[in-house]
Amino acid sequence: MDIIDLQNNKNNKDLLIDNLVKTLKEDKVLVLPTDTIYGLSAWCHSKKAIDKVFKIKKRPKNKTFILLISDLKMLEEYAIINNEQRDYLKKIWPGPITVILKAKKSISNISASDGTVAIRLPDSKLLQNIIAKLGSAIVSTSVNINKEKSLNNVEDIKERFKNETKKPDLIIKNDSKNDSKNNKSSQIINLLDINNPLIVRK
């Protein structure tokens, strides 16, 4: 697993983003820092990369992943929303809250079997820029083997996956904020009924 430290690329952010977009389009799986915890990430249009994420995590195929988007406009490519839902999201995004919405039929390959999709607009300029440049969402999930604790430290990630056959292709190390063991996964809210939002994960 190669590692790129953001601390050493502060003056080359545009070039870095271009290279990361290229890497994602080459069906690679990246570990990316977010505004919550590190995430295993892949381009949502790369079946090969998404399959690899499942294999890395040893996760059942019936458990889908969160989609990360760059802005509210991109949301409409993946979910069916009404004005009330849109207004609600404007108040909570960008931020560490994932919402469950009705998925568009065009993304049945990455949505849940019940026709929903979990989606989030992260409060991270790096991620927003990568996704905007990519032109479509990325799938994201915690960095861990299924049923094990999430890893949020680059050294822990390297150690856990060093002997695994399937592992991430590249790790992007944040300068400091997310390289810790204290950050939490995003909250998840079921927003199908805007009049009765349900907290799925605190």
Task: Tell me briefly what this model is.
The chain is α/β, with parallel strands linked by helices.
Notes on the structure:
- With 202 residues, the protein is of the alpha/beta class.
- The protein has a single domain, classed as DHBP synthase (Alpha-Beta Complex), CATH 3.90.870.
- Helix content is 28%, strand content 23%.
- Strands 1, 2, 3, 4, 5, 6, 7, 8, 9, 10 and 11 form an 11-stranded mixed β-sheet that branches.
- A hairpin with a 6-residue loop joins strand 2 and strand 3.
- Helix 1 (13-25) crosses helix 5.
- The longest helix is centred in the first third of the chain and has 13 residues, at 13-25.
- The chain is globular, with a radius of gyration of 16 Å.
- The chain starts with a strand and ends with a strand.
- The model has no long low-confidence stretch (mean pLDDT 94).
